[in-house]
Design brief:
Length: 66
Amino acid sequence: MILNFSVQNFGPVKENQILSFEADSSTHLEDQYVITTQSGIRVLKLGLIYGANASGKTLSFGLLIF
């Protein structure tokens, strides 16, 4: 399970970018989008990547597969 993923200085991505699946302390829509692991970590069921054209969104998926 991936909880955090970061990339920097790769392709069009210059600044450090972090994709985190750890949920914050908010309880809004918790039943629909948050799972609590046996060790007590609150993990999101989904994540979103959005941004301008040519900003590295597709590259992020390629790096996750790598």
